[in-house]
């Protein structure tokens, strides 16, 4: 499968939302990645349900929602109503992860689990078969524009092995510090979906940046 690209709206210019949405719609982006931060799970506050709801009719790509909030179970049906297609919850934010994943699927969304850089992949052993996607954070969550953590390559390899052993169909997504320097290497290591915020929206030509992040082929 050719890898997918999900630009992260976090790095967009919020004062020019119409032109930023045009970029997403006219580009080769596959999904739009939306980072929801509550100032509790992560030390930052981003945007929430009303923003997703107002963007939804204007964006032609699926909404890949990355919830960085405590106790995400409280908002699963609200994110469905706001237009989420895929809901990612953090392993570290869920006391009853299996129940949370079932609730996401019962709402008709794809279910993803996100791991912080310090959280080992083997902790997903008993849930991997239920997942549509695993998001590996390659920076500590909370902010865009941070430096990629190289240990992510080892985690991609661990996750590939876990997925193969379990027969799971989960996609491997990588988020944080992804740019044109490491994208090809990440896909060759096994990443199926790349998230890129600064590398897209801070580029002089975001549509061209998206093209560059899409147009290479995995060598594995
Ligand atoms: O989840 C995130 C931060 O918590 C963002 O998706 C991520 O940081 C993307 O931004 P960049 O590509 O600039 O690193
Ligand atoms: Co994210």
TrEMBL record:
GO BP: pentose catabolic process; pentose-phosphate shunt
Residues noted as binding substrate in the record, renumbered to the chain: 8, 66, 142-145, 175-177, 197-198
Instruction: Spell out the InterPro entries in the cross-references.
Output: Aldolase_TIM, Ribul_P_3_epim, Ribul_P_3_epim-like, RibuloseP-bd_barrel
Gene this protein is translated from: rpe
One cellular component term from this protein's GO annotations in UniProt: cytoplasm
The task this protein performs is described as: Catalyzes the reversible epimerization of D-ribulose 5-phosphate to D-xylulose 5-phosphate.
Instruction: Report what the protein is called.
Output: Ribulose-phosphate 3-epimerase
Q: What is its EC number?
A: 5.1.3.1
- List the active site: 35 (proton acceptor), 175 (proton donor)
The entry's keywords = Carbohydrate metabolism, Cobalt, Isomerase, Manganese, Metal-binding, Zinc
Which pathway is it part of?
Carbohydrate degradation
């Amino acid at each position: 499968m050719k890898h997918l690209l999900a630009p992260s709206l976090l790095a967009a210019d919020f004062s020019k939302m119409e032109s930023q949405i045009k970029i997403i719609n006219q580009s080769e982006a596959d999904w739009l990645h939306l980072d929801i931060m509550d100032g509790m799970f992560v030390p930052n506050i981003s945007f929430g349900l009303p923003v997703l709801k107002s963007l939804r009719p204007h964006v032609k790509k699926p909404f890949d929602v990355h919830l960085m909030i405590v106790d995400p179970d409280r908002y699963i049906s609200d994110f469905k109503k706001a237009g989420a297609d895929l809901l990612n919850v953090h392993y570290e934010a869920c006391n009853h992860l299996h129940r949370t994943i079932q609730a996401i699927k019962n709402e008709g969304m794809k279910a993803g689990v996100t791991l912080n850089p310090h959280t080992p992949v083997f902790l997903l052993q008993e849930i991997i078969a239920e997942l549509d996607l695993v998001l590996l954070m390659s920076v500590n969550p909370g902010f865009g524009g941070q430096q990629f953590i190289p240990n992510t390559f080892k985690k991609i390899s661990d996750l590939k092995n876990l997925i193969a052993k379990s027969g799971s169909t989960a996609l491997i997504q990588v988020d944080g510090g992804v740019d044109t320097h490491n994208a090809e290497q990440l896909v060759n290591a096994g990443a199926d979906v790349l998230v890129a915020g600064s590398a897209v929206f801070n580029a002089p030509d975001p549509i061209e940046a998206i093209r560059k992040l899409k147009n290479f082929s995995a060598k594995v």
